[in-house]
Amino acid sequence: MSQLANVAKNTAKTAIKGALLKNPYTWLVMAIGLFLAGLVAIVVLYLMAYSNEEGAESNMGTGGEFIPGGTAQISPEVLRYEPLVRKYALENGVEEHVPLLLAKIMQESGGRVPDVMQSSESLGFPPNTIMDPEYSIKVGVAYFADILKKAKGDIKLTLQSYNFGGGFIDYALDRGGYSKAVAVEFSNMMAAKQGWDRYGDVNYVENVLRYMPNTNTTPVSAKGFLLPMNHFKITSQFGMRVNPVTGVYKLHAGIDFGCQRGDAIYSVKDGKVTRSGWQDPGNPKAGYGQRVYIQHGSNIETVYAHLSAIHVKAGQTVKAGQQIGACGTTGSSTGNHLHFEIALSGKKVDPLQYLSSGK
User: β-strands 239-242, 309-310: how paired?
Assistant: First the structure.
């Protein structure tokens, strides 16, 4: 009986399927179902793309101001190129910007195509003409270094010019330097000239910097100061000592922090840059070398000396934890370190009492 029941059951199923397939309404329902499924898939893909574009704006404050650093991660596909990036960064004198160059690769290609830095266009070739990752990095880093120099060290202007082309540099400098508004204005102008819907990526700066590590995250001291570096390795205290260069016994008016060339140097508080650059442009071995002075309120000034690179300029407002330069050994120095000073109403004081977490 069970076998007869199964045969009858299967025969009934087959008959029903055949009737349904012969019915034109069945085909109509199936076609509508497939169309709706495809439509849903398209909507899902669009929302995913939109969310990725929104992610590029994740570092923007509620007022539209840029907040340095991001939480996006650099992939293993990009990190594998770090030795090559460092090699060509050293050759071009931009070794302190290795993290930024890796962030650029992440934005440009994610490390998934041979032309990892999308350098072909800088040579006048169509996109992705370069098929050797090392050659792409060699060309891209050299191009970055050239733009950085022409942009007078302005990182945001350099990044946007890498995307727009070198013509953006003079355009921006004539309008007070880089700003998002200037980038949008330039993009609209070039798109109109070319007859295109858009020109470049006006969000390129934010898109790259979201892959940069966050700025200084060290705890705030009891007096509201951050550390000027990500670690606390003091190699020379404030006070009287024999100067290691001159051999003269005199006051060492700051603290020396041990560091490696290119390590990030941060502003310890909100403030305004009053001096930036070489102490003696005619003699790179003199005094503090490349240094930055920042005024915090009416009576506190901080000094950051012997820098290998400077990322801020006089008159610029900076935030606590913002990178202002990179560790170096410029000026009268025996090795890579940061000489850090605090002056209270013009008088040099021991910075340790302001940086310490003690009460």
Answer: unpaired
- For CA atoms 204, 206, 212, 216, give the dihedral sign: positive
Q: Which residues of 158-178 are buried (b: 16+ CB within 10 A; e: fewer)?
A: bbbbbbbbeebbebbbeeebb
CA 50 to chain centre: 22
User: HSE (CB half, 13 Å, CA atoms) of 2?
Assistant: 0
> Taking the domains of the chain in order of start, what are their residue ranges?
2-55, 76-209, 234-355
pLDDT one digit per residue (tens) for the chain, 359 residues:
444 445 444 544 444 445 444 555 555 556 666 666 555 554 444 433 333 333 333 333 322 233 344 556 889 999 999 999 999 999 999 887 888 999 999 999 999 999 999 999 999 899 999 999 999 999 999 999 999 999 888 888 999 999 999 999 999 999 888 888 999 999 999 999 999 999 999 999 989 988 876 555 567 777 889 999 887 788 999 999 898 888 899 999 999 999 888 888 999 999 999 999 999 999 999 999 999 999 999 899 999 999 999 999 999 999 988 889 999 999 999 999 999 999 999 999 999 889 875 44
Residues 6+ apart with CB under 8 A from 224: 269
Task: With CA atoms as reference, report the closest residue to 212 among 271, 258, 155.
Answer: 155
Q: Domain 76-209: which topology?
A: Lysozyme (1.10.530)
Backbone phi and psi for residue 258, each to the nearest 5 degrees, phi listed first: -70, 140
Among 100, 38, 122, 148, residue whose Cα is nearest residue 264: 100
Give the global pTM: 0.49
Residues in the chain: 359
The CATH homologous superfamily for domain 234-355 is: Glucose Permease (Domain IIA) (2.70.70.10)
